[in-house]
Amino acid sequence: MAVQRIVIENCAIATVDAGDTEYASGHIVVADNRIESVGAGKAPENLENVVRRIDGTGHLATPGLVNTHHHFYQWITRGLATDHNLFNWLVALYPTWARIDEQMAYSAAQGSLAMMARGGVTTAMDHHYVFPKGSGDLSGAIIRAARETGVRFTLARGSMDRSEKDGGLPPDFAVETLDGALAATEATVDEHHDASFDAMTQVAVAPCSPFSVSTELMKQGAELARRKGVRLHTHGSETVEEEQFCKELFGMGPTEYFESTGWLGEDVWMAHCVHMNDSDIAAFARTKTGVAHCPSSNARLAAGIARVPDMLAAGVPVGLGVDGTASNESGELHTELRNALLINRLGAHREAALNARQALRLGTFGGAQVLGRASQIGSLEAGKLADLVLWNLDTLAHASIADPVTALVFGAAAPVSLSLVNGKPVVEDSRLLNVDEDAIARSTRAEAQRLARIAAQA
Length: 458
What we know:
Helices cover 36% and strands 21% of the residues.
């Protein structure tokens, strides 16, 4: 079959390539699922098999946003425990989360994915670690929702084996055994992970956190991931309390503990990493361990300000994460571009902490690095996969901001005129093409009410 091309012209372009190349008015040619060319001015003449031409006047084209940390199931527990720190928030919500089932997980994934996709996310991930006994095929339901939405997706198959009786936070019936968690994780990798260049679904091994899993699950989880050739993900150094917990239980801080269990390396990324000292950052930089920075969630739970400027200066790969929508009710990644920039300016580096282009890089190429896909996505370059967004800046909200990247990052959320994933339109004129937003809103509302009733009766 002949190659089919989409041509986008007359738009500003931020490629986010190694040189941060930008064009005030340029073109992008997509051939099937790859970017064929990017450059200034009009597209080359006499292109064959052009199935669509798009006038991008008044728009900015960027790589699609890449989300590196989320908990989809939390979509149906939004707006609860709004004045709690992390540990108290977890204690308040675990009894409810422990009642989820397959239909709830599917509906919550639909809501989470729809919100991100309509806001410019082309690659999503979900760290799902709550597997109550008898709850059904939760991983399959989540992957099905991602496939239907049309986004590229990484499922971080989580696990917990440290419950209340072992000094952990989740209820006893909401955790798995060590052997059960490892077997289920391996089965998920075998069934769903695609290692190909243009993979739409990948799987990572992802025990939840040091305070909800055993040391043996951390160690054997790392061994499993490396035997299978997949990435590793967990929560790390999110709060002061976590650091105290690690020192009391393991006799060392979180980073030392992670290193002792095989959890530092270029195939690993951690969520949060708020409380990191100089030696922690140096260890992450030395091992190329990645970080998913979640500024809105960290602020919502009063966890603190991650040292993102210092991480970047040291060479740590850093991407952005929405985190679960029970700790970031907006549930979309554009907010994180803006909040990463603003919140980090409250830290030690003040106005020099991050600029607009660094924030955009965190949300695109940085995320691709963290997910191990920087050769495939995260920048607009010939040969890469055609995951891109055309942002409408010809609006009242952006009209007087001369620089388009500044308008995107500092300004109000820009409407998405077009989002391509693997060369296929997923969003047009701010509406999802593959799923019914209104039906998803009704479904998630119903499932949230059902979960609340079940939890109240427990």
